[in-house]
Structure formats: structure tokens, C-alpha cells
Write a structure and sequence with these properties.
With about 675 residues, the chain is an alpha+beta fold. It is about 40% helix and about 15% strand.
Length: about 675
């Protein structure tokens, strides 16, 4: 009414309704800005308008943005120290002097394709170059610089030069300093003063004048610098442009080879973890993954822990910290199991319906006994089966028990029965003919040892579907670092990738994960933990690494799941089969050893990676195989594959009855 506004500042405990909307908008845009991978952050900063950046910051702050390699390469080019810019004759040497200024004979030799002594003598004789002393050093200068050197530095110049080269120059020192800036990377005032042989008090006004004209810039440029440096405007523009090109290349998705190099490193393959504490770290990454029991300890855990001891895993299981739960049978002597921490079991272990065994009296009797009596030993289970009225043989009870185990309904406090099944020790002992007092009348089968219990009580209280999907999404991210649709499908999750996608999307919106196209050739929806993208990109280029042997079903082995197998050299169909092994060298599969170790498939990369055979020999040296006898290679008898024979013999294999054999030392 009075055409006036009165402002009253008030401090409140929380934002007003209007301020809340503004605060939310700010948070949604900027709060997680720093969580972006390093390459994206640096590329975005370099893409800013430099003049605007200078106005905002008061100076050029590019120390963390410019690439050190780009800076080193550009300085070599500016100083004509690269092969393509060296002087090849007297004329090019004269151009070199005009562009770089006075140089010593040593400097000229470093910038010439041949011996420059004769060329210097020719140029001096033709009055196109002069010999001068600058900063107490004998140098050769272009005749065109005679007046500048005389007027700026007091250099004595020879007689007989053309008048055009001896006329006074308006700003001689300014020209010399500007040329130094054009031909060098970021520099300090002391550097140009020392090069020209003048005091810092004379060089600084010339630098200030050039900065005022916009020809040079003062700021923080060198990645390893601690003081503010000067840099020519055009040189800085080249630095920014080339650094941005390098960063944009880093932002590009990596190929499958980089992913194959990343996963073993991310999951700790070949690490030096030891003891129970190290095993807990390994299980934190692997828990919930359904892996064949025959390889879980011998290949997967042993690959991630130095001197892996089964006793450590037994200690965690008997202490109740870790439980193992079946996830499907793989024949009579193998099956998939999940190892999980007990408190995570409700979230990472899918519930199983017992209704499938309602029409099977023996299975139903065992479940009823465990439900009513709780954890029980083998003799208790045999007695419970007999109480049903039907005369079941103990081998039938054992088979029914393991049906329940592989279906994820029953588990054991110990891993001993699981190891017994994998090793084939499932026979039931016979009763003693003449039992004596104080002596056991019979011993239960190794596959039935220990205390058996139901899995269902471990999965209570039942979490909500949202909690389950949230936990599984986090576990997949922990396991793979960079989670792709193909990797999630390879896990065999209920609902597939679509089941965890809403959780991953919500985590992205919170800034907990990043979404992008990180690995080329895979699904566009890829999610990564902070830091994982930078680590993945650091492995973009091939590296000289030691071959690594992984189980074909190992989560760190991406071929056959996230990545397709390359075409083998000959006949053969590599797959993620239990008991098979893959030799990886620098992210490339070079050899595939089928289960049993009798058949070998090689890939084209094997021709350039001769160390793969030694990696296979390591399976015997480390005790994975007692004897390795390779009978076939690439679909033919091994002796008909000369390249394979040569590699295997070099690794210590010898002729055997059916193929090439490698035995553990000490065996006949």
C-alpha cells in the first residue's frame, strides 16, 4: 500500500516451505556432484569457458585438471625435441633459431637430425646467424634477433649485419619474454630470468605487461607445481584441448578385456589375505552366490586367500557365523551351494516351498522330525525314518537327506558332509558283527556326519520384498563393482535384472551408485560403485601380467556370462561348467581345461601368450590336481597339435600312455 517493503531476517531451526523447495532443488543437483568418476569431473571442468572460470575463481585453477602426460608431450613439441620436428639442414636450423631464440651447440645438437656444426658455420658465414653470449653461455642466435639481444640484454653483436637487423626495437625484452612463453609450458618468473640472464625485477614487469595484454596467463597449471606459474595463452589453450581429448577418451566405455582384467582385481584374486579375518573379507564379496561345491573351496576361495585353510571356514560355520545352503544338485556328487553370514541369510537366500516333498513319505518324515525335535544327528534321522513304519535302508535315508539339502531345506553345522559328497564318500558302513560293550556298533556315513537342521528358521523373520531386493542389489554391486545386466542374469536371480533395477535406480538417485555406459557391447543400463569406474578405466590398456587360472564358474571369470567366449582355435565348446578351468592373460582367455583335465581348448591369444601352459602346471604344483593328463587338444589327440605340445612340454609335461602328463613331485 505504501509502495515499500520491509525485510526482517529470522533464524529458524528448519527451512520455511518456500526455502525447502529451493534447498531440495539445490541438493538434487549439487549434493552428489563430487561422486562422479574422476574423468567425468575433469572433463566437465575443462569444458568450462576459461574467461568465465577466471572471473569466478580470480585465477586459472587447472592443476588438478591438466594431464601430466599431455604437458610433457607438448613441451617436447614446443622445444622441437620430437623426431618429426628436428632440423635436417641449415635452413631448418635457421628456422629453429628464429622460433626458439639463442641456443647453445648442445641444445642445437639435441634438436637436429644430424651434426649441426657445419650448418652453424654456414649460417654464420652467410650472416644469417651470429655467435653471442647470453647469461654467461655461448649461444648461436638468428641474425634477426641481433637488435633485440643488444637492446634488451646488452649483448655485443658482430659487425657487417644488414641494417634491418640492427635497427632499434621498441620493446626488445618484451619480445624475448613472449617468445620464451610461446615455446615453453607453464613456467616461473625465475625460469625466464635465468634463461635470459636478467634479474627477476626486470623480468616481472615484462610478464605483467604481457598479462595485461592477454597474451599470457598467471595461475596454477603444473600438476606437480606448488607456485603459481605463467603460461602463454595459446599454449594453455592447447593444453586444455589435448587434456580434454584424453579425458574424453577415458570417459568412453572400455572393452570386454578391461572388464576381464578388472573383475579378478576387484574381487581380490591373488591377494595376500590370510587367516579368518581375511576369509571374512572374501566371503563378504562372495556371499549369496550359488557356486558348485566342488570348486567353492578348491578354486574360488583358494584363489582369493593366500594359504587358504578349510579349518578357518569350519571355525566360522561351527561358531554359527557362516551357514551353507544348497542351491540345486549337479549330478550325484556335486551341487551348488551358497555361503552367507547368518544375519544376511533372510535377505540373500531365497525361500523354498516344502510342498514338493509332500507326496514323498521319507522326505516328509525327515522334515517333520527336524521341525519338531530341532537339530539332529544322523542316528536320530535314521530312527525318525524308521518310526514312520516303512523299512527304509540307510542309503535311502541318506539320499533323501541330500535331496532336501540340495533343495535348500536342510543344512549342517559343518562342511564335512559336503566335502564327503564331493569326494564320493557316501557309502554307509556295515554293522559290526559282534558288538562289544563300550564300542560303537556302527559308524554313520561321512556324508551324514554332523548336526542337521532346517534352513527355514534361519530365514525368519521374513523380510519384505523391498528389503530383499535392496540387499541383493547391494551384494551384486559389492561383488562386481560395475554391475551389468548380463552379470546379474548370470547369477540366476529371481526376477532377473528387472527385479533389482528399481533399487539400483533409487540408489543412483541418492548418489550411492553411478549409472552410465561403462563397458561397450553390454546392456546400456550399467551401475557402478564410487571408485569402481576409475579403477575399471585405469585397466583400459593391456598390461604385462602373470597368467591367472580361474574356475570356469568363478564370479571373477566373466566369459560365458557377461562376455561371450571367443572362437576357439579348433573344435571345442567352452562353457561355465563345474570343474573346468580357464587361463586368463591380461583379460584374454587363452586356454580352457575341461572337467577332469583330459581335454584342452585353446584360443587365438594362446599363440602370443606362451606362459599359459605354466599356469596350467600350477594346478598340479598347488595341489588342485594330483596328476594332470591332457589327452585331447582342440578336438584332436594332443600329439596332433604341435603348438600345444610345444607349450606343454616347455611347462614340464612329459609323454604318457594316452597323452601328456604332469605329476605332483614325489608321485610315481
Amino acid at each position: 500500500r505504501s509502495r515499500s517493503i520491509r525485510i526482517v531476517p529470522v533464524d529458524t531451526q528448519r527451512a520455511s516451505p518456500m526455502a525447502q523447495s529451493l534447498l531440495f532443488s539445490w541438493i538434487s543437483v549439487y549434493m552428489y556432484e563430487g561422486d562422479a568418476p574422476v574423468a567425468e569431473r575433469r572433463a566437465a571442468a575443462l569444458a568450462l569457458d576459461r574467461d568465465l572460470l577466471r572471473d569466478l575463481l580470480g585465477a586459472e585453477e587447472l592443476r588438478e585438471l591438466l594431464d601430466p602426460g599431455v604437458l610433457a608431450d607438448l613441451e617436447l613439441e614446443l622445444q622441437r625435441l620430437v623426431d618429426s620436428r628436428r632440423a635436417r639442414d641449415a635452413d631448418e636450423l635457421h628456422d629453429l633459431l628464429r622460433l626458439l631464440g639463442p641456443l647453445s651447440l648442445t641444445d642445437l645438437d639435441a634438436r637436429s637430425a644430424g651434426d649441426p656444426t657445419a650448418w652453424v658455420e654456414q649460417l654464420v658465414r652467410e650472416r644469417r646467424a651470429i655467435e653471442v653470449s647470453v647469461a654467461g653461455e655461448a649461444r648461436v642466435a638468428a641474425a634477426e634477433d641481433a637488435a633485440r639481444l643488444r637492446d634488451a640484454l646488452g649483448v655485443a653483436i658482430p659487425m657487417g649485419l644488414p641494417g634491418a637487423f640492427t635497427e632499434p626495437v621498441e620493446h626488445p625484452l618484451l619480445d624475448l619474454v613472449a617468445r620464451y612463453a610461446r615455446t615453453h609450458g607453464p613456467f616461473l618468473t625465475a625460469h625466464v630470468a635465468h634463461h635470459l640472464g636478467v634479474g627477476v625485477d626486470r623480468a616481472r614487469p615484462a610478464l605483467d605487461a604481457l598479462e595485461a595484454d592477454g597474451r599470457i596467463v598467471l595461475g596454477e597449471f603444473r600438476p606437480d607445481g606448488i607456485e603459481r606459474e605463467w603460461c602463454d595463452d595459446d599454449v594453455l589453450r592447447q593444453l586444455r584441448r589435448r587434456s580434454l581429448a584424453v579425458l574424453r577418451r577415458e570417459v568412453e566405455p572400455v572393452d570386454g578385456g578391461a572388464l576381464a582384467r578388472f573383475l579378478p582385481a576387484w574381487q581380490g584374486v591373488g591377494s595376500t589375505r590370510r587367516g579368518i579375518e581375511g576369509l571374512v573379507d572374501v566371503l563378504a564379496v562372495l556371499q549369496g552366490a550359488a557356486l558348485p561345491a566342488s570348486v567353492f573351496e578348491l578354486d574360488v576361495l583358494a584363489a582369493r586367500q593366500a594359504d587358504y585353510r578349510p579349518a578357518d571356514l569350519d571355525a566360522l560355520c561351527t561358531a554359527g557365523e557362516v551357514v551353507w545352503i544348497g542351491a540345486g544338485s549337479l549330478g550325484a556328487r556335486d551341487g551348488r551351494v551358497r555361503l552367507v553370514f547368518r544375519d544376511q541369510a533372510p535377505l540373500l537366500v531365497p525361500a523354498v516351498d516344502e510342498a514338493a516333498f509332500d507326496d514323498r513319505p521319507l522326505h516328509h518324515a525327515l522334515l517333520d522330525h527336524l521341525r519338531t525335535r530341532g537339530a539332529s544327528f544322523w542316528t536320530d534321522l535314521v530312527r525318525a525314518a524308521a518310526d514312520g513304519g516303512a523299512p527304509y535302508a540307510e542309503r535311502e535315508v541318506l539320499a533323501a537327506l541330500w535331496d532336501l539339502v540340495w533343495d535348500g531345506l536342510v543344512t549342517n553345522d559343518s562342511l564335512a558332509p559336503l566335502r564327503a559328497v564331493v569326494s564320493g564318500k557316501t557309502a554307509v558302513s556295515r554293522a559290526s558283527i559282534r558288538p562289544r560293550p563300550g564300542r560303537l556298533s556302527r559308524i554313520g556315513p561321512p556324508a551324514g556326519a554332523g548336526r542337521w537342521s532346517l534352513v527355514a528358521p534361519m530365514l525368519e523373520p521374513s523380510p519384505t520384498p523391498t528389503e530383499v531386493q535392496h540387499a541383493r542389489a547391494l551384494q551384486l554391486l559389492e561383488r562386481y563393482g560395475v554391475l551389468t545386466r548380463e552379470a546379474a542374469l548370470g547369477e540366476g536371480l529371481e526376477g532377473g535384472f528387472a527385479g533389482v533395477y528399481p533399487v539400483l535406480k533409487a540408489l543412483e538417485e541418492r548418489g550411492a551408485v553411478r549409472r552410465g555406459y561403462f563397458v561397450s557391447g553390454l546392456g546400456a543400463a550399467q551401475f557402478a560403485l564410487p571408485g569402481a569406474v576409475d579403477r575399471l578405466r585405469s585397466l583400459r590398456d593391456p598390461q604385462e601380467v602373470t597368467p591367472v587360472v580361474l574356475a570356469a564358474t568363478d564370479p571373477a571369470q566373466p566369459f560365458g556370462a557377461a562376455l561371450p567366449w571367443p572362437d576357439p582355435v579348433g573344435a571345442g565348446r567352452p562353457s561355465r561348467a563345474a570343474g573346468a578351468h580357464v587361463v586368463l592373460v591380461d583379460g584374454e582367455p587363452v586356454a580352457f581345461l575341461e572337467r577332469g583335465g583330459h581335454s584342452l581348448v585353446t584360443f587365438p591369444a594362446a599363440a602370443d601368450r606362451p606362459g599359459w601352459a605354466s599356469a596350467l602346471a600350477g594346478l598340479v604344483e598347488h595341489g588342485r590336481y594330483r596328476t594332470l593328463e591332457i589327452r585331447k587338444a582342440d578336438g584332436v589327440p594332443v600329439r596332433e597339435a604341435p603348438a600345444v605340445v610345444e607349450a606343454l612340454v616347455a611347462a614340464g609335461f612329459t609323454d604318457g600312455y594316452k597323452g601328456l602328463v604332469l605329476r605332483r613331485p614325489g608321485r610315481g
